[in-house]
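[Meeting: bench + compute handoff]

Bench side (C.D.) handed over the final construct sequence. Compute side (W.E.) agreed to return the predicted structure before the next meeting so the bench team could plan truncations. Sequence as handed over:
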Amino acid sequence: MSLVLIVDKGGTPKDWANHEIAACYYAREKVLWELGTKIKTMLGGHNQYGEQSRIEISSIIGVSGPILGDKFYNTQTVFADRMTLYARDQHICAYCGDEFSTSSLTIDHVHPKSRGGTNHWTNCVTACRPCNHRKGWKTPEEAKMHLLYVPYAPTVHERILLKNRKVLADQMEFLKASIPKHSRVWRKLS
């Protein structure tokens, strides 16, 4: 199932939404503009004249505000989930450089959590289980394990793109237009 790209009135991506949540934006009259193709028609009840309500959902909708609370709508600086982090790092261990399946990967805190490290993009990297175990609670320097790439905080456009594996062509074009040319995400898109 394709997801709807939710953006604010200025065009900044906020998140992906399923068709039901997107329909709530339409029903509550929070959709300011639409882009892309119509991807779903949701049918509702019938009025007294026998007319059935319908909502045509576009692949990208600009909205006036949250319907699910500020947590859904506000940009986060802490990474959302491990799959997005693995996608940022292209499933490559930051220490040995090998590519792994999701089940063989872990999140490593460059500055260990046990020593005050945080769950921020710039402190977390993808690591295979053996490398993460070998590094343990040490910093990379103490463990004599040097990082092969620098962790970075992806832009909001990159984060949104990394979160969804089934991006429609019009959504991809919208997001790609604002991704910096030096981003690692371009390697994934090539």
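W.E. noted at the follow-up: The chain has two domains: 1-75+155-190, 82-135. C.D. will use this when planning the next construct.
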